[in-house]
Design brief:
single chain, alpha+beta, Aminopeptidase, Nonspecific Lipid-transfer Protein, Chain A, 3 domains, globular, transferase, acyltransferase, Acetyltransferase_Eis, NAcTrfase_Eis, Acetyltransf_17
């Protein structure tokens, strides 16, 4: 078997392989875009060939930016288009592709790779761990009545009722630039969020509302008329489905949710990709009016340069941890002293006794603060070598807010 890098001339071959791997057929572009593969970077693709020259496996990667805790923006490889033909599975093709891809990512100077896992067991063995989670909520419209906030405002501080703003309902084709600008501000303020390169919006790649698929968009503007949030939605058979609600302001989210729930001739509302700990259900007089249909993993993270990755992210408290990290897929095992002081981290090799021993996939899971190290200790995946080590790791790795990603790639 041979692994080859792809060029622009290989696009049709790569698409044929990955579609056949999933038992699907390649769609035809409409008006020059709107397909998930429109933004594929062919200089980052790989194809696996049999000795007689037949393509049997594929992998690709996008060049993204990931927001880390502390508001740090880091370059990452967004792994996608991974597939092996059914006739050649369990013959080492996928492992060879993943090993070559991780080598290429390192050679580019990127210390993180991310992906959306079609099956969890597949990618955990390659060192990826589930780092963000997302939920789908279904709200019964006539039961979803908002309660009056019970918290007392600080004297002199503006209350929710006193904050001004407006909402305008537009068609998707009327507000492309607004969507791009609002999303970009949101993702820079949200740990775990991925950037959407301009070319994705231009090509209509990915999923709605990036694609030109017909949608209505509720755009929220602040008191100065500046867009600071949006909800992309469609209505069908009495259900309004919201693709995504984008804002860093809980008050704006509530205003957009109220508008969606006030839609005429609708009996229920489905909110996709809501942070799993979002306070919306608590804002209703009947919390059961909003049912959690699904809570699942979304973004998986893989560390390729552990010291760089730990130094790059922000930290909210001081402390020291010795991490013994095993990376069986790449055949590496190293021990690091992580020292955090004043929000800045230093990470160096050490011979000190470890506080925690863990797999690199477990480090990926806790890296953004979305999974508590103590949870993985209790699950039997991370070994805490002394009492208090898990609690210290929880406090150190905790982010300023739960990481959330809703970009599909």
């Amino acid at each position: 078997m041979e692994i080859r890098a792809t060029t622009d001339e290989d696009l049709s071959v790569l698409l044929d392989v990955v579609h056949a791997a999933f038992g699907r057929f390649t769609e035809t572009p409409v008006d020059g875009g709107g397909l998930w593969w429109s933004a594929i970077e062919m200089d980052r693709g790989l194809l696996a060939y049999t000795p007689d020259g037949r393509p049997v496996g594929s992998a690709a990667a996008y060049s993204f930016e990931l927001t880390l805790p502390g508001g740090v923006i880091a370059p990452v490889a967004g792994v996608s288009a991974v597939g092996v033909l059914p006739s050649h599975r369990r013959q080492g093709v996928l492992s060879a592709l993943m090993r070559q891809q991780l080598t290429d990512v390192r050679n580019r100077g990127e210390f993180l790779a991310v992906l959306l896992a079609s099956e969890a067991p597949i990618y955990q063995r390659f060192g990826y761990g589930p780092a963000t989670y997302t939920a789908h909520l279904t709200l019964q419209r006539h039961r979803a009545v908002f309660d009056r906030p019970r918290a007392r405002a600080t004297p002199g501080a503006p209350t929710t009722e006193s904050r001004t703003g407006s909402i305008e309902v537009l068609r998707r084709e009327q507000c492309g630039q607004i969507l791009e600008e609002v999303y970009d501000r949101y993702r820079r303020a949200t740990p775990g969020a991925l950037g959407r390169p301009h070319r994705w919006w231009t090509l209509g790649a990915g999923a709605p509302p990036v694609t030109p698929t017909p949608r209505y968009v509720a755009v929220h503007r602040d008191g100065d008329g500046v867009p600071n949030g949006y909800a992309s939605y469609s209505v069908d058979s009495g259900t309004v489905t919201v693709d995504e609600t984008i804002t860093s302001d809980d008050t704006v989210f509530t205003a957009l949710a109220r508008l969606i729930l006030d839609h005429d001739l609708v009996t229920q509302c489905v909110l996709k990709h809501v942070p799993h700990d979002h306070p919306l259900r608590w804002q209703l007089t009947d919390c059961r009016a909003a049912q959690v249909d699904h809570v699942g993993d979304w973004l998986w993270v893989r560390l390729l340069d552990i010291p760089r990755a730990l130094i790059a992210r922000g930290w909210s408290m001081d402390g020291e941890l010795v991490l013994d990290v095993d990376d069986p897929f790449l055949g590496e095992r190293n021990r690091y002293l992580l020292t955090v002081q004043g929000g800045q981290a230093h990470c160096v090799p050490t011979e000190r006794e470890p506080d925690l021993s863990l797999d690199v996939s477990d480090l990926g899971a806790v890296y953004l603060g979305g999974t508590a190290p103590s949870t993985l200790v209790r699950a039997g995946h991370i070994r805490a070598h002394h009492q208090g080590a898990a609690a210290l790791a929880d406090a150190l790795f905790r982010a300023e807010r739960s990481p959330h990603c809703l970009h599909w790639f």
